[in-house]
Design brief:
The chain contains 10 helices and 14 strands. By secondary structure, it is an alpha/beta fold. It has 2 domains: about 150 residues, Rossmann fold, CATH 3.40.50; about 100 residues, Hypothetical Protein, Haloacid Dehalogenase-like Hydrolase, Chain: A, domain 2 (2-Layer Sandwich). It comes from Pediococcus acidilactici.
Length: about 270
């Protein structure tokens, strides 16, 4: 049986518990052992790069980041691959979102490398939660006037957690021009159509000469689907959304609130998982 040489994990609802925490000392010990065995650990998230790095601040060791749903891949502090939205496609998507009933009241966030621009205002009830995920969240009067490379459009509605009907409508409207996936917590992400976490993971697999058979992955929602199918051991979390569980037959024994990912890494290191 081929040995695992790469482990990729989503963050929210997967690596972190519902209090947005993880057992740091336990993971640090695991990362040290993974490094000793030359097994790579990749953080694969829909989040902004700065937020991903902030979550793992203080952890010492080799961490690689596939951020923005795969639109930005950073290895050893260097950008390996990036795929911002094409300006014309971004403008068309924003025009649709801001003029279509059901979407016009949505909260939109445009994510850049170091900043994020939004139609929200600091007095909004969900501003604090959004500011947790985005560094330098900045209100702007006109999103179409933002003139910086945008990796994704983050869409959510105040008080709405099931956005499946909206996601289906938007996917149909965008067609093949742009990709749209549900990202958990009642959100949707719009990226370039080829951009997925699996796409980002592929860049690293090629760089490190690691195959799908040598890859293990963890996720909990639709934006993890492609990544789970791109690893021999692709695990949906016990607490995962139906979309992630449909992507794989493998389910973690424990959920995110009981360190489900760390439990599986421990099992791998102990030789219980091949």
């Amino acid at each position: 049986m081929t040995e695992i040489r790469l482990i990729a994990s989503d963050i929210d609802g997967t690596f972190l518990n519902d209090q947005r925490e993880f057992d740091r000392s336990r993971f640090q010990a695991q990362l040290d052992e993974l490094s000793r065995r030359q097994i790579k650990f990749v953080v694969a998230s829909g989040n902004q790069l700065a937020h991903c790095q902030e979550v793992f601040a203080g952890i010492e060791g080799d961490l690689t980041f596939v951020a923005e749903d795969g639109a930005l891949t950073v290895e050893q502090g260097k950008v390996l691959d990036e795929n911002p939205l094409k300006p014309a496609l971004l403008r068309d998507a924003l025009d649709y979102l801001m003029s279509t009933p059901g979407f016009a009241e949505a909260k939109l966030i445009l994510s850049t490398r170091q900043q994020a621009f939004t139609n929200m205002v600091p007095s909004d009830a969900d501003w604090k939660d959004s500011a947790y995920f985005y560094q330098h969240l900045t209100p702007v009067a006109k999103l179409t006037a933002v003139n910086e490379p945008i990796y994704k459009i983050d869409i959510h509605w105040s008080g709405l957690t099931d956005v499946r009907p909206q996601a289906e409508q938007l996917q149909n409207a965008l067609g093949d021009d742009l990709g749209c996936v549900m990202s958990g917590l009642g959100g949707m992400d719009v990226t370039m159509p080829h951009v997925t976490k699996a796409y980002g993971l592929t860049q690293l697999q090629n760089l490190w000469q690691i195959s799908m058979d040598e890859t293990m992955a963890f996720g909990d929602t639709q934006n993890d689907e492609a990544m789970l199918q791109h690893a021999r051991l692709g695990y949906a979390m016990k607490n995962a959304e139906p979309e992630a569980k449909k992507a794989t037959k493998l389910i973690t024994k424990l959920d995110n609130n009981h360190s489900g990912v760390l439990d599986m890494i421990e099992r791998l290191l102990a030789g219980e998982i091949k």
